[in-house]
Amino acid sequence: MPGILYIVATPIGNLDDMPPRVAATFGAADFVAAEDTRVTLKLLNHLGLKKPMMSYYEHALHHGAAILDRIEAGESCALCSDAGMPCISDPGEDLVGLCAARDIPTVVIPGPSAAISALAVSGLPTSRFCFEGFLSTNRKNRMEHLHQISGDQHTLIFYEAPHKLIYTLQDMLEVLGDRRIALCRELTKLHEEIIRTTFSGALERYREKSPRGEYVLIIEGAPEPE
Length: 226
Ligand code: SAM
Known about the structure:
Blueprint: E1 5-8, H1 20-28, E2 31-34, H2 37-47, E3 53-55, H3 63-72, E4 77-80, H4 93-101, E5 106-109, H5 114-122, E6 129-134, H6 139-149, E7 155-160, H7 165-176, E8 180-185, E9 193-198, H8 199-208, E10 215-219
Parallel strand pairs: 1-4, 1-5, 2-3, 2-4, 6-7
Antiparallel strand pairs: 7-10, 8-9, 8-10
Helix pairs in contact: 6-7, 7-8
The protein binds S-adenosylmethionine.
């Protein structure tokens, strides 16, 4: 009998956002597959748990086969990332795909995700949206991506790092036109901030003050064609 791969969401900032099933699942798992074992060790210490860990991140995806072999041999594994929902702009997508291909049972332990939390608080339409993840650091690819989605009428969700934010806002203004944006910064943390403005308003703001912290950008869709 194979074991189970548990896909375990962890808090995106505030440890009080830990669903009770998360602690129970870590406690019951035979081992933990973690994006960064040092980050997850802190979480396990917070929960008072000690577990064998394997690293599973962008440059260690080859560990996936060993993880699956252990699950096929009957062990259960709790997969987690540094914060939020694994597999969403985080390692795990391939592992879950391989489980599906090898008929290995998978169970999700849901919890916080930065994208959905930001969408909910953005004040922009939520009935239709598309998660676009991170834009490429390569400007040509970034511009191509923005041109591809420029006519989409649903709300758009992006993850962005603070040091790239100003370039991203400039490119968005150039390709998408001046739209409404909610910059959701440091959600659930001490310096949480929701800035509801436009691309030009955000650029104006960051001329005086450099962006800091983690951001999700929620952007209104294109206007309906006349
Ligand atoms: N899988 C995670 C999730 O579902 O929440 C996201 C992981 S992705 C590698 C990290 C990005 O998520 C950050 O660069 C930032 O854009 C966003 N993010 C994570 N935590 C955040 C927070 N507390 N506030 C705002 N954005 C956050």
